[in-house]
C-alpha cells in the first residue's frame, strides 16, 4: 500500500531483495541481486488473541527461514508457551512444552540446530529471539562459546521489558518482532504460574 493511502489502493506484495557487489573479473558495475522473495509475516493464534509477527530478514535470514518453514509445516500447531517469566519473556516452540513430566519440558527441538546470527537489533519489548543453551561462562560477562551459541532450534521467546532483556543483546539471535497483538502477549505473561521459579504456568493451554 502506498504511503498515506488506503488498502483499496493496494499496489502489490512487498519484496525482500538482497544485493551485493559482483567482484568477478569483467562483471558490470553496480549491485547484483542475489535474492528476491515476497515479504512474509506470521500470525500466531492464542486464546488471548492473535499475535502478528514480522521478521528481520536482513540480520537473521537463516533463523527467519527456519522459523517460517517450521510454521508452514505445522510444527508449532498446538504448542504452548511453556515458560513464562513476567516482566522478562514468554517462551514457546517446544514440542515437549505441555508434557506433564517437568524434567522434559524445555528440551524439545526440531531435530536440528541453527547457527547463531547475533546482531545489533535490541531485545526491546515485543522482539522475537531464539532460545538456546546457556553457557556457564556467560555468568561472568563473557560471550557464549560456539557449542552454546549455535544450539538454538525451534524454541523462541518474546521480550517483555527492555530493562531486563537488554542483557541479551548480541548474545541471542533477535529475528523479528510483534507488530500487532502485544496485549495478547501481555495476557499470556499474566496467567497464573504453578512454579514461578521455573516459569511453568498452571494451565498449559494457550
Query: Which regions have little confidence, pLDDT < 50, spanning 5+ residues?
Result: none
Estimated share of beta-strand residues = 25-35%
Calculate Rg over CA atoms: 19 Å
Q: Count of helical segments?
A: 4
Question: Which percent bin holds the helix content?
Answer: 10-25%
Quaternary structure type: single chain
Compressed to H and E, one letter per element, the order equals EEEEHEEEHEHEHEE
Q: Which strand order do you get reading across the main beta sheet?
A: 3-4-9-7-8-6-5
Q: Name the average pLDDT.
A: 88
Number of strands: 11
Structural class: alpha+beta
The shape is globular
- What distance separates the N and C termini? 33 Å
Query: Main sheet, how many strands, which sense, barrel?
Result: 7 strands, antiparallel
Description:
By secondary structure, the protein is α+β, with helices and mostly antiparallel strands. The chain is built from 4 helices and 11 strands; from the N terminus they run ββββαβββαβαβαββ. The protein has a 7-stranded antiparallel beta sheet with strand order 3-4-9-7-8-6-5. Strands 1-2 form a two-stranded antiparallel ribbon. Strands 10-11 form a two-stranded antiparallel ribbon. Strand 3 (42-46) and strand 4 (49-55) form a beta hairpin. The chain is globular, with a radius of gyration of 19 Å.
